[in-house]
Write a structure and sequence with these properties.
Glycosyltransferase; EC 3.1.1.11; eleven-stranded parallel beta sheet; Pectinesterase; eight-stranded parallel beta sheet; 17 helices; alpha/beta; aspartyl esterase; 20% strand; 3 domains; Pectate Lyase C-like; 29% helix; pectinesterase activity
């Protein structure tokens, strides 16, 4: 009798519990996150769901997709999840995963202030930052899985969801109750800008004209890529719409962003489908059994999910990947189980008129001469900031673009992008046209390579001229802090002041650089990098007993740093300065006919505690003079050049392109 009662009790309990669970199962996890009132997130029910969310989070910081996290878990399932945590299996941003869980944690933290939710959220921020490719894109899964999921994924708004999250955090909108750390925020700014750069680079050109984007782009070539068998390389209406909405949300868009939006809108107008309505046929239990396209002249515009890269023609396909011209030609399963038409681009078209009125390119520049631009802080020029002027110049121009900068203090972090070649920044006067910023290693906080992000002015383009400028890193003596970084070829810096402390000038890359009539100051290794660089008639000023140069010349380079007719000076009481030390063991640095002050140590050079560098570096001098030139006391592994050896250290031989011809060299036209 007792057993019968137990069975009946168990059956009743099971029925009641099953009914409760069924009610929970009927809820959509996404709806819970987005539709529940704020107060609900303080309830025991919400906290129970939050326990599941924490369990599903992988140790790397992300979550798997397509999981109804509000479903109850058995003890066995919980143990399995603890194992999966460590494997990081399935962590992704696809189908809203990770982004939606972060929003849930933000909402529950706003009500409870429980640090466990904050910490899980911040771990997810780190996950997103870690998952980004160097080119700015994000894969579908991270850690990476084999196959198409490694592609840069716009599909189902995976990358755009990430970018919108980063934008909300960097703009401090208050959308999330949890604020990233200072270090995370600095990384978020970098990641967002890299993401925008990736978006601009992946916009597809059709016969030389910018159009839209594919659902996936190859992570290496950036070209449209295939995913599942029926998701072939194509132009995508839906994903492209949400990319454009993101670009339109940028407060001060660059010329490239404006051009991308205008081009995409033109494409949306060109490929929209009118006079056609999508009808769904349902059975008696509400399931879609057929989709049909019906002529209807009053139907709103729609856009195909997939369009041919060559001519924008819509196409459809089953799991065999064979393209068909119409929806009716494919089987029931794919026809009814996939969204082949979308209306998302209409959101862009609705917002575009207001956006265009605000950002029309015609209103950006005051004069019509795109090759001669004026920057002035008082508004009397074409632009008030240097970066905006650079962003709105022609890319890869055949004719030199000159940006004249009026006197003033421009507190900006300036970047001359790779496509801004053939560009001159000319200041009104060296002492009064000042570009300054104050980033330094610990402030940037991007890991062991933070130095390279600290620049005030960065040159990535070839054929750039900087003239009559002060370029300053104003952070003080706080460690590595770059004023000027140059990575490119045929760059000239003329009559400029480069001010800083440690790592003032990063003259790097494999290109040729020319520094003439400049004042360069610093403390430690304040001229460093791998470039072939010629310094002529410059004052090199040491502010501390330390090292002037730290070359990292590549092994195969003929020349490294060459200083000719330069004057080496120092602050008062500075008396122990080395000419250089090898950042990398094949460093090359030569001083010719230079005035070496008394602060230069008699031994001249230091091996940076790298005994092997004494055999591989080339440190040389020729006809230097003044108290700091003591050739007989120099370290034995340095070189005092002979006349014949010194003859090769000419401007033409080091920086020239036409070494055996009489053509005018690039530096002769400055």
């Amino acid at each position: 009798m007792k057993n019968i009662k137990r069975i009946v009790f168990f059956a009743i309990t099971l029925a009641v519990c099953s009914n409760l669970y069924a009610q929970v199962h009927d809820k959509s996890w996404r709806d819970i996150i987005h539709k529940k009132e704020a107060a609900w997130f303080a309830t025991p029910e919400a906290k129970q769901m939050a326990e599941n969310v924490l369990l599903y989070q992988r140790d790397i910081g992300g979550w798997p997709k397509n999981v109804q996290m509000h479903h109850s878990l058995t003890e066995t399932q919980k143990q399995e999840l603890l194992v999966k945590k460590q494997t990081n299996e399935g962590a992704t941003t696809d189908n809203g995963a990770t982004i939606q869980e972060m929003l849930f944690l933000s909402k529950i933290y706003a009500q409870t202030r429980d640090e466990i939710y904050k910490n899980a959220f911040l771990k997810a921020v780190d996950y997103i930052l870690e998952a980004q490719y160097d080119n700015g894109g994000w894969p579908q899964f991270y850690p990476l899985k084999k196959g198409y999921s490694t592609h840069i994924t716009y599909n189902d708004d995976s990358m755009i969801n990430i970018m919108n999250l980063l934008k909300k955090m960097k703009d401090n909108t208050g959308y999330y109750s949890i604020q990233p750390t200072k270090m995370q925020l600095e990384k978020i700014n970098v990641a967002f800008n890299k993401g925008i750069d990736c978006i601009l680079k992946t916009q597809y050109k059709q016969n030389g004209v910018l159009t839209a984007w594919c659902a996936q782009h190859d992570e290496n070539t950036l070209l449209p890529a295939k995913a599942r068998a029926y998701e072939l390389p194509s132009l995508s209406g839906a994903e492209s719409a949400h990319i454009v909405l993101l670009l339109m949300s940028i407060e001060n868009p660059s010329k490239e962003v404006i051009n991308a939006v205008n081009s995409a809108v033109t494409w949306f107008e060109k490929v929209k489908i009118t006079g056609l309505r999508k009808d769904r046929i349902y059975n008696n239990v509400g399931k879609i059994v057929d989709k049909r396209m019906i002529p209807d002249e009053n139907a709103p515009a729609i856009w195909a999910r997939f369009m041919e890269l060559e001519d924008n023609a819509p196409f459809f396909c089953d799991r065999d990947g064979i393209k068909k011209a119409s929806l009716a030609e494919i089987g029931d399963e794919r026809r009814n189980g996939y969204a082949w038409y979308k209306n998302d681009p209409q959101l862009v078209l609705n917002k575009y008129p207001e956006w265009k009125a605000k950002h029309d390119l015609i209103t950006i520049k005051k004069n019509n001469d795109e090759f001669n631009i004026v920057v002035a802080k008082d508004g009397s020029g074409d632009y008030e900031t240097i970066q905006k002027a650079i962003n709105n110049t022609k890319s890869f121009p055949y004719k030199r673009v000159t940006i004249f900068i009026k006197d003033g203090i421009y507190k900006e972090k300036v970047k001359i992008h790779e496509w801004n070649s053939n560009l001159s920044l000319i200041g009104e006067s060296k002492d009064k046209t000042i570009i300054t910023y104050d980033d330094y290693f610990n402030k940037v906080g991007l890991g062991r390579n933070s130095t390279f992000y600290t620049y005030t002015l960065l040159v990535e383009a070839n054929k750039v001229v900087l003239k009559n400028l002060t370029i300053e890193n104003a952070s003080g003596e706080v460690g590595q802090a770059v004023a000027l970084s140059v990575f490119s070829d045929e760059v000239a810096v003329i009559n400029c002041k480069l001010l800083g402390n440690q790592d003032t000038l990063y003259a790097s890359g494999k290109g040729r650089q020319y520094y003439k009539d400049c004042y360069i100051e610093g403390t430690t290794d304040f001229i460093f990098g791998s470039a072939t660089a010629f310094f002529e008639n410059c004052e090199i000023h040491s502010k501390k007993n330390s090292y002037i140069t730290a070359a990292s010349t590549p092994k195969d380079s003929l020349f490294g740093y060459v200083f000719k007719d330069c004057k080496l000076t120092a602050d008062k009481d500075i008396d122990e300065v080395y000419l250089g030390r090898p950042w990398r063991i094949y460093a090359q640095t030569v001083f010719i006919n230079c005035d070496l002050g008394s602060h230069i140590l008699s031994e001249g050079w230091h091996n940076w505690s790298k005994a092997e560098a004494e055999k591989t570096t080339f440190y040389g001098e020729y006809k230097n003079h003044n108290v700091g030139f003591q050739p007989e006391k120099r370290v034995g592994w340095s070189h005092q050049l002979k006349k014949q050896e010194a003859k090769k250290y000419t401007l033409k031989n080091i920086l020239g392109k036409y070494k055996k011809a009489s053509k005018k060299e690039w530096y002769e036209t400055l």
